[in-house]
Amino acid sequence: MIQLGAKVLYKILIEFGIPRNLIRLIKMSLTQTYSRVRVGKNVSDRFPIRNGLKQEDAVSPLLFNFALEYVIRRVQVNQDGLKLNDTHQLLAYADDVNTLGGNIYTLKENTEALVAATREIGLEVSADKTNYMVMSRDKNAGRNHSVRTDNSTFERVEGFKYLGTTLTNQSSIVEEIKSRMRSGNVCYHSVQKLLSSTLLSKNLKIKIYRTLSLPVVCKGVKLGR
Question: What does the alpha-carbon distance between residue 148 and residue 168 come to, in Å, rounded to a whole number?
Fold first, then answer.
């Protein structure tokens, strides 16, 4: 469950100009909802859901996007330092949020603003899943600094994956290439029996390779003929 209060959600939808009749339908789907927990063959008694959105509900991702968009707009309104070389310093895709800064102090300010804005609507930034990275030619840059919000300290890393792409503190593409090759090998071995089968034509095998294996390795790369 996403801990998002219903009243706050309705206020956000009204602010975005969602028609009142649609908001009433959303209220009906979120009012008097109950869940059960299954462990093996045992099922618990039903219990009411008072906060949050339903998991695996078709509307939940859209409602969460409205809430996160509201937070991002609040941060951008309240912060003057959210652009670096005319590039936005706050990037978000689903629940993956990336804040940028020209220095460690700007990064701290942007992170604190994001945490404060999410807290206003009942969302929490998970410190355990949050890392920060210093990108510099100087390997010792930022070693004496840490990023903290309230009582949480974020771990510094030398690389991480963002939207499926490996980023490193040295802006090296080597790790990304290795990662894609490993993923490509896994994908290839998963269809190796099909590619080795004498029952399939050569054209069909090429189509399987281009459809399943090649996109994994060449994601985001424009290939010529």
Answer: 21
